[in-house]
Design brief:
13 strands, alpha/beta, single chain, seven-stranded mixed beta sheet
Length: 309
C-alpha cells in the first residue's frame, strides 16, 4: 500500500518542486486539497488525519500554526517535514541533513518531526562540520561564510522582483544586518560556538548556489595543509549518495573558476577544496541547486527516510 503525503503549501516554489519529485516515487501518492480550501483549518486538519506525512511549505508563522493543528489529532497525527525556518533549532525536531554525521540518517528515519535545512546552511554545514569533527577547526574559530544564490532562493518577493517587475539589479548583497535567519542553524550544526559572519548575495539567475569559506591555514591548530582539509571532507562522506567531495586533481583542472548553475535540476551537493600552499590559504566551496539539495531535493530525501521508501 502506498504511503500518502500532503504538501501544505503546494502552490509555492518549493511545494511545486517537491510534488514534481514525488510524482516519480511509485511508493508515494500525494493527497491534494481543493484550492478554495487551502486556508481552511478544518479541511486541512481532516486531510492531515488521512495521510502518513505532511510537508509544510509555508511561512514560519503559518508552519507553527500547522504543527499545532496536526497536534490536535493525537495518535492520528502525521509525521511532519517542515521546509520553513520555524523549527530548525527547536527542541523535539530532528535536523534534516542526513549526511551531518553517521547517526543522522537513522535519527531522521525514526523521527516524527524533521526540520528541512536551509539552502545556504546546507552548503556551509557540509563544509564546516567535517573540519570541526576532525579537530581541524576550533569551535570558536572566527569563520566567514560567503554565498551567492539564484533569486528563487529568496522567496515570493524576490522572485517577483526579478521575473515580474524586472526591478532587481543583476547582483546584490543582502542580509547585511548580520542577523540572517539561517545563522542559528549554520552555527549549531557546523559545530561552532562562535557565530560566523554570513554574507549572502543573489544574482540574476533563477537557481544555483555557491557557498564559500575562506581559511588562513596557519591560524588553524596544527597548521593543516589543503590535503588535510580534503581528507577530512572525504573521510566524512565516504558513502554519501547525494554529497560528492570533488578530488583535488579534478578541482585543479577547473582553472580557478566555478559555475554556480552546473548542478541545476539535480539533488547533488559538490564540495571543493582550493588551496595555495605557498600563501597558506584555502577556500572551501559547496555547489548545489538551491531548489534541489537546498530545498525540495532534501525534503524528498527526508520523506523517503521517514516513510521507509
Amino acid at each position: 500500500m502506498n504511503a500518502r503525503v500532503f504538501i501544505d503549501g503546494e502552490a509555492g516554489t518549493t511545494g511545486l518542486e517537491i510534488r514534481e519529485r514525488l510524482a516519480a516515487e511509485p511508493a508515494i501518492s500525494v493527497a491534494s486539497i481543493a484550492a478554495e480550501a487551502r486556508k481552511d483549518p478544518d479541511a486541512r486538519r481532516t486531510l492531515m488525519g488521512e495521510v502518513d506525512l505532511v510537508v509544510l511549505c509555508l511561512p514560519d508563522a503559518a508552519a507553527v500554526e500547522a504543527v499545532a493543528l496536526a497536534g490536535t489529532l493525537g495518535n492520528r497525527a502525521p509525521k511532519i517535514v517542515d521546509a520553513s525556518t520555524a523549527h530548525r533549532v527547536s527542541e523535539g525536531w530532528v535536523y534534516g541533513f542526513p549526511e551531518l554525521d553517521r547517526h543522522q540518517a537513522d535519527a531522521i528515519r525514526s523521527a516524527r518531526q524533521v526540520a528541512n535545512p536551509g539552502c545556504y546552511p546546507t552548503g556551509g554545514i557540509a563544509l564546516l562540520r567535517p573540519l570541526t569533527d576532525a579537530g581541524l577547526l576550533p569551535s570558536d574559530y572566527p569563520v566567514t561564510v560567503n554565498a551567492v544564490s539564484g533569486y528563487s532562493g529568496g522567496g515570493k518577493s524576490m522572485i517577483e522582483a526579478y521575473e515580474v517587475t524586472k526591478s532587481a539589479p543583476d547582483f546584490e548583497l543582502y542580509g547585511l544586518s548580520l542577523a540572517h535567519k539561517h545563522v542559528p542553524e549554520l552555527t549549531r550544526y557546523s559545530g561552532l560556538s562562535r557565530q560566523p559572519i554570513f554574507v549572502p548575495s543573489v544574482g540574476n539567475f533563477r537557481q544555483g548556489m555557491l557557498v564559500s569559506v575562506p581559511l588562513h591555514l596557519d591560524t588553524l591548530p596544527g597548521k593543516p595543509s589543503g590535503a588535510d582539509l580534503q581528507k577530512a571532507l572525504e573521510d566524512h562522506y565516504p558513502d554519501a549518495q547525494h554529497v560528492r567531495v570533488v578530488p583535488a586533481a579534478e578541482s585543479a583542472k577547473l582553472g580557478g573558476r566555478l559555475d554556480a548553475l552546473a548542478l541545476n535540476g539535480s539533488d547533488k551537493l559538490e564540495l571543493y577544496v582550493f588551496a595555495n600552499e605557498a600563501q597558506r590559504q584555502a577556500v572551501l566551496v559547496a555547489r548545489l541547486d538551491n531548489l534541489g539539495k537546498g530545498a525540495a531535493g532534501a525534503a524528498v530525501q527526508n520523506i523517503r527516510l521517514m516513510l521507509g521508501v
